[in-house]
Amino acid sequence: MNIARASIEKPILTWLVILGCLFGGLWGFASLGRLEDPAFTIKQAVIITSYPGASAEQVAREVSEPLESAIQKMGEVKTIKSINQPSSSIIEVEVKSIYDGEELPGIWTKLRAKVSDAARDLPSGVGEPRVNDGFGDVFGLYYAVTAPGYSDAEIYRLATWLRRELLAVEGVADVDLAGLPQEAIFIEPDLALLSTKNVPPQAVVGAVAQADSVAPAGSVDEGGHRTLIEAPDGSGTVSEISGLSIGVGGDILNLYDVAQVHRGRVEQPSMILRHNGQEAFSFGVAGLSTENIVEVGHRVDARLDVLFDEIPAGVELRPIYQQHVVVEEASNAFLINLAMSVAIVVAVLALFMGWRASIVVGATLLLTVVGTLFFMAIFAIEMERISLGALIIAMGMLVDNAIVVAEGMQIAMLGGQSSKQAADETAGKTQIPLLGATVIGIMAFAGIGLSPDATGEFMFSLFAVIGISLLLSWVLAITVTPLLGHYLFKRGTAGGAGAYDGPLFRAYAATLHAAIKARWLVVVALTGITVVCFAGFGQIKQQFFPNSNTPLFFVHYKLPQGSTVHETSRDLAVIEKWLAQRDEVVSYTTYAGQGATRFMLTYSAEKPNPSYGHMIIRTHDISTIPALSADLEHFGRENLSQGEFRTRRLVFGPGGGDPIEVRVSGSDPAILRDLGQQVIEVMEATSPDILDARTNWREPELVVRPIYATDRAQSAGISRDDVAGALRFATKGTEGGVYREGERLIPITVRLPREANSHLRDQPVWSETGKHFLPIEQVIDGLGYEVQNTLVHRRDRVETLTVGADIPSERTAAEVFATIRSAVEAIEVPAGYSLDWGGEYESSTEAQQSLGKQLPLSLLIMVLISVLLFNAIKQPVIIWLLVPMSVNGVALGLLGTGFPFTFTALLGLLSLSGMLIKNGIVLVEEIDIVRAEGVELREAIVTACVSRLRPVVLAAATTILGMLPLLSDAFFVSMAVTIMGGLAFASVLTLIAAPVFYYLFFARSEAKKIAKANINEDAVPA
């Protein structure tokens, strides 16, 4: 029995489907997880290792190299990069894209084992390597806290209290604190007194090292009971520490006799954070991956409201970013867009097919959408930017199947058939072709859905949602649409007026007759138009992912390497004063020393560096950002010429790095720097669009190295470590222990008093052999000065220098890359050195290559389906000849609007190809059916195409109009223009091209058939 007929004869089953979609969709919408961006796995881990006192090159050679060699043995690793600085190694390990998130924990365990084994052979003095695999945690509820007038200790207690309270909120995974004041207990001995009394600095360090230590004291067993013994209480206050005793040569001295003890901030903190110009700290809240971030956000807001009465007066919590608010607004906007799309589709159908058909198709569309939400909830596909956009994209495509069935039923019933007969006939002819065309439309998106890289993971929900919705639309088209048509469509009489007698149909029929008559002229014209549009397509701006529509943008500021964090902070304060006078600015948060906490999945902070400054600026509206950013950049470059000042928009999608990047790799740092400078000069000479070209090795720094007088120093019993210790005591200070304040551990630092402005040459050094101080000049031959690289980058165990550059906001990276590529690649590179491209070119190339690996399978399935549908070759060839024409409207649309061809536009082009194939299948299948009835070729083509005019035009119109809500979405606007322009132009060409191609392919066989029939007639006796 035909499914469509059964849906009418057994309506209870169809009504169960309707109610299941309706109520299941309502449940799905209420229970679906909500995110801002789709979750994609950041397949990176970071290994941090300290090596105090080592230069950057020593760190690279003695720490990074052994660890990288061990890590390289893992077959799962794609890339190993390291940043080597004095005393510190940071290794980033990226896993191959073929491994998904479920496999990563096992890979990280294996990585830890490799690192632990390699760490045993590292030099003495190297700290234990720490592996951090929580690189992708997102703290989407991100706040700044200002507490003017409060002490650093009070601010710390406030921060830890907030963290403790918020961690107790249901659904919260972690709370990250940043920007807290860094304090220390400073002990500053008087060098003159130490020298007079022969008190070595190590005696002071030893006195405070155990001042507040925790040590076991055992237990006592008596009478069958155990009594624990605790160590004596330590020195719990600064005054108690200053009263500690020092034993020297049989004499007892109090610490305050020879030193000043005070509490204060460290001189060079790792970060200085301000919000709207006020000193602040930040806290970010991350939700559990299984939780709805909107609900978690509301719970956190509710908890903060309760805590508000307990927060001290003057303390203010100000949001920097609230992911749950953004997601909720996106969900509400989706409902509005959904309602608009459904209303547009219903209105178009009512205009061209009548109100009855519009209700039938509109109801089917609504059930398809809510049914899709039901299946999204079942398969745990969250509502986020991509999946919501996919629903809007699919909106116009979902009506295709229902339109074909409804239009066929309506025409058949007007011709006198009953609803059951009409459903039986219409579905019998179309359900298999429509299923094949639907699967082909889904497979057009399969390339991105099956891509294993970060871009494919980011866009997977697009494929999943479109696949679910299109398959569901086919099921509902052959079940619900016939039943609703049975209720609403009217039955006409067999002798009524023809369904295709209207002026539009007659005009189209006349056009087809003329086109078939002038078929070779039509082919030449179609070929010419397509060639011109392909040429025009090459003029379209190319872009990987578009700018975000979040009203945020960033400032990146970089002083010369070696600048202090305070100098960086002072420069950024100049920008803060300028921003405070701009009405379009809502808030600004300033970070000196490093970037912000990861508050968005697509945000990637810069590595810590005292000379780096960062700002997050929020505006009232996204439209004000370009002008504000341009003004700010002009002001910053003019007033902070000592540094590198640039602004950057927030970009959708995975990625990172500079838009233009060139990597040079080799063994000699001097040659790498020379090659990097050549690259910069060539790029700047080739294109005026290269801005702020720079290298990631930055400027070399001046290093002071005492020249150790071996003979004299060893005779005096003074080692190299003693010299280094004396200089450390005179500058940064020596850590002598910790001061416990609750759960907080504050370092105790012994150092030279800050007011003692003595030269390094004047420092005394303690001789353990002679038990007295010696001038450091007696054990060194002066101070040597040398220039060192303090930022040594490596990639896959090879020193690699990266040249990065920005571009003007009105230009795309692809445009600028095209102008400089040949010139840069013409640079002569010595043997053993290599030059490679990074940046957006590398990211987009990798994404397209990954997509390209999946496309052959998708295309093969699409071709096979088209061949199996017709059980022939000619018809599929006709249909696939239509695909190149999809570029025609795309080129005109993007060139006319000025939008770039982004990665999402590429998806639009693929989906457009699927739509054209689907239209072609419907058209060609109908021609075959009419010919099978014995109608002459030309007449069969015209009759079939006229009968399919309305479904094809309405499907295109509803799809195009369904894209209208996406024109205001920065992420999907290029895709919307691609589909709208391409489908509008290509549909018109399809209605002409498909019939003409069909006639050309079958005219000869038709002529042979007619000739054979005539011969047979002549052979029959009269």
From TrEMBL:
Pfam families: ACR_tran
Protein name, UniProt field: Efflux RND transporter permease subunit
Residue spans crossing the bilayer: 12-33, 334-353, 359-381, 388-412, 432-450, 462-484, 518-537, 859-883, 889-910, 952-973, 979-1002
Higher taxonomy: Bacteria, Pseudomonadati, Pseudomonadota, Alphaproteobacteria, Hyphomicrobiales
The keyword Repressor is annotated on this UniProt entry: no
PROSITE patterns in alphabetical order: PROKAR_LIPOPROTEIN
Gene3D superfamilies: Multidrug efflux transporter AcrB pore domain, Multidrug efflux transporter AcrB pore domain like, Multidrug efflux transporter AcrB TolC docking domain, DN and DC subdomains, Multidrug efflux transporter AcrB transmembrane domain
Record keywords: Membrane, Transmembrane, Transmembrane helix
Source organism of this protein record: Ahrensia kielensis
InterPro entries given in the database record: AcrB_DN_DC_subdom, Acrflvin-R
Signal peptide: none
Domain of life: Bacteria
